[in-house]
Amino acid sequence: MSESNNESLAWEKIVATYRGSLQSLEEIKRMELHFPQFLSHGLVGSEFRIGVTEDLQKQWFSELYSKPLEAAIKNAGLGDGIKVVFVIEKPSAIAKATVEEKQIKPKSAQATRRVRALPSTLPLHENYTFKNFVRGPSNSFAHAAATAVAKGLGRTAYNPLFIWGGTGLGKTHLMEAIGHYVLDNNPEASVCYITSETFLNEYVNAIASAGLPAFRARYRKYDLLLLDDVQFIVGKKQFQEEFFNTINQLLIYNKQVVMTSDVAPKELQLEERLISRFQQGMVTEIESPSYETRLAILKSKMQARNREIPSDILNFIAENIRSHVRAIEGALSRVVTFIDINPTMPLNLEIAQNLLKDMIEEEVTIKNITPEAIIQATAEHYGVTINDIKAPGRTQSLVTPRQMAMFLACKLTTDSLPDIGKSFDRKHTTVYYGSQQIQKRLSVEPDLKQAIAQISAKLGRKISDVLE
After folding, report:
1. For residue range 403-417, what is the model confidence (pLDDT) as tens digits?
2. Which domains does the chain have, with CATH numbers?
């Protein structure tokens, strides 16, 4: 068998092993969109090199696939310690013509779907409306701004509207509520809700298929563009250029842009003109809900479910579940489930306390665990020092311990990304990137889950507290 045939068979085995590690249809679809963009692949020394055409593809695919493909190579029995490296490679005229021909004339119905089925606007959650949003001191200004934007689409000073705050506080709910209001009152309006990751994904695909004009035309025509998780574009410099131009074009024509982020614009490591553009409109924060707001949320959810729960139990939940709205909803769901499966047993405070014992313990533990304690436990697990994890530089042997500590700090504390970053002597964007890297590696590196379990145990937590 020829050397090229051997390489082909090896690549097929790598792809099959990687595909087998994927846990969701979304991951498989993303792979099917991206892998055809690889121009070449082969082993050069201790590196497995994959050729792509653009710098953004190199950067984006490196983040997404380098570590998982290294694991796939190892798990497929094709080598240990091999690094996957993406390199820039301009396609030959013949190869380019072949790619274009495949894109224009797909050979099957499946191929047709693959070319056309790019992600676009996502469906709005049916319950994420203004009617179902509970206002309180922590979110009243954000709610007022969102309402003004919805009623005066593109005609207010709140353009763009930038809503930021921690996980589970209602940013996405408010943003989608704007979309619902606009469509309910003007069915002819064109509304697009999309995550920044999907937006970037489409941009990368457009580059590969020479489809940038169509991409730009699509996203610069909407009356309302809703972009979730803007912090995801940090570090993607080429995409930031496209992102800026798209937003700028929409604003010039009085189209409305609404964005959400985990952190404020000034904390994002983005181009200055992008940050300036965000701040030209309205920037508003959603904070953790107060006791009164938590209680109001419980009463609203209970009314929506057509349930009656004793006030002392609602007060108990509001007093003890404080981290975010999703945790409050989770506690209420547990109580309602108990009522459903035990219709003859009266619910009292003692039963509710027992039902929610682990959730309350988790709230207390989350509050008590600090990034410093996590750094120390992680350092002990990997046999390094706290100074090693905090030290500047990118020594390869310290990358995993450092990123693991960042990942756990994001999962086990209620600190903001900027505050966690201070504990590591790094910017919050580095913390976000490090945490994402561990998340991506989990599906293909079983040893990481074992490490999480062991470090969590040192901190008095279970792995289920980290990996939901």
Report:
1. 999 999 988 887 778
2. 3-115 (3.30.300.180), 140-286 (3.40.50.300), 291-360 (1.10.8.60), 369-465 (1.10.1750.10)
